[in-house]
Amino acid sequence: MKTTSIFLASVTVAVTTGMVVAMMAGCATAKKPSVAGETKATLAEMREFAKLDSKTSYRLPPYQEKHLPNGLTVLLLPDDRLPSISYSLLMRVGSTQDPEGLSGLSAMVAELVDKGTKKRNAQKIAAELGQMGAELDVSAMLEYTVVSGSALSTYGDALLENMIEILIEPTFSDVEIERVRKQVLAGIEHRIDNPDGFSDLAFSSFLYGDHPYSRPVVGNAKSVAAIKKKHIISHYLRYYRPNNSILTITGKYTPELEAKILSAFGNWPGRELPKTEFPQLNPIKNLQVELVDKPGLVQAQIRIGHLGIKRTNPDFVPIRVANTILGGAFASRLSDRVRKELGLTYSIRSAFDPRVDQGPFEIATFTKNSSVGQTLDETLKVYESFHKDGVKKEEVEMVKGYLKGVFPTAIETPEKLALNLMLLRFYGVPDSYLTSYLSEVDRVTVGDLNRVIKKYFDPRNLKILVYSNAADVQTQLEPLAKSHGGELTVKKASEF
């Protein structure tokens, strides 16, 4: 499914090269990376980063920002080094905007817009793009949808025509709707067989309840079956609008092509947009534990967390630094204790995922069934110690150097920079976040970190989800819940 083809990191420190792309801007994710896929940034390597004579300021390369009469924001980032061009359009619509009972609608619309227009069917569109060696993708995520296309500069005009055609003239044929529906339902049926990804979905449901953030991006079997053609057309007409979008153009292009781009997208009609309103989130009390039972599993996926922050939070940078020390890098307190010293897991990480509303804070790991109780106990001890005792100057300086060291990889190409600029505008964060990021990291003190740890990290009021064979792990979880004044609930994986 294309709904998971674009991954954008949040507060997590760079665990893979691709994840660093939008790490600076911060954003919501459709799918978290596998905890087993982290790059092994060792303590020694982090110390080397800290020794680097990193700059404390960053100047954005020249670019133009235009606001068209129809409400579209356009960012132009020319780059003549390679004979290629890329278009990327971010629309403020994702699973968050799916109506009640129709989760997966945004994902289905995204999957269908390039599957036939008034002029061409899906096969002809794919064939003509293939002849150009061009790529065109539409991906729906939690809070937004991205339409992206790239080709050699020679085909810049043709790529523009393709993007405009699929954005403005999709037909949503009955045949394609049913074909996509079958694909989605098949994927949903088998997602319990992917323990890591399924645990993320189950934890979101557990943490957020009736909030839109609890919905799977692709929906569930009941909601996908309920989606009708009229829902697809209505959703498209409501949200696929220029005044709901941000467009970036990067690469090598002529002034003539620039004029064509502005004219073509300028003719896209705007429309009054519905306002997204979020229900109030209730604070967690004590320790709530949910066991999702799937007989036959020999390993347990573990998720521990609570509500985190909005992307506009003024403490974003010190929170990032603090989380890196706790579990946002391979060399961190959680990894050192639970993985390295005790050997209870291959990997453990923590992350804030800041969003338009309060995103989650989450600790994620896995272990064999027999060590679930011990893994949870040791993880909570590390978290409680972190909250109680705070951080030390040596580790703060090391992590600050590391964060400054990986910063360039987030904006090293025009495409990466364009993505960051789009996301900053999406979340309402000024460009000065990028230009002052290095100096902001430099200014963070031990006192700043200990303040945000007390304020935003909460080891006493948590939700814990375990995905495993209940027969093997339930007796390990019951005393944990009782000892913290909480409760244990058990669900079957088939209920999701």
Class computed from helices, strands and strand pairing: alpha+beta
- Tell me the overall shape: globular
Give the second-level CATH assignment, the architecture of the largest domain.
2-Layer Sandwich
Any idea of the CATH topology of the largest domain? Answer: Cytochrome Bc1 Complex, Chain A, domain 1
The whole-number mean of residue pLDDT values reads 90
The CATH superfamily of the largest domain bears the name Metalloenzyme, LuxS/M16 peptidase-like
Strand content: 15-25%
* Amount of helix: 40-55%
**Low confidence ranges:** 1-23, 27-41
Tally of separate helices: 17
Largest sheet: 6 strands, mixed
Integer tally of domains: 2
Please give the number of β-strands: 12
Per CATH, the class of the largest domain reads Alpha Beta
Distance between the termini: 19 Å
Describe what this molecule looks like in 3D.
This protein has 496 residues and is α+β, with helices and mostly antiparallel strands. The chain contains 17 helices and twelve strands. The protein folds into two domains: 245 residues, Metalloenzyme, LuxS/M16 peptidase-like (Cytochrome Bc1 Complex, Chain A, domain 1, 2-Layer Sandwich); 203 residues, Cytochrome Bc1 Complex, Chain A, domain 1. The strands form two sheets. The chain has a six-stranded mixed β-sheet, sandwiched between helices. Strands 9-10-8-11-7-12 form a six-stranded mixed β-sheet, with helices on both faces. Helix 1 packs across helix 13, helix 4 runs parallel beside helix 9 and helix 13 runs antiparallel to helix 15. The N terminus is likely disordered.
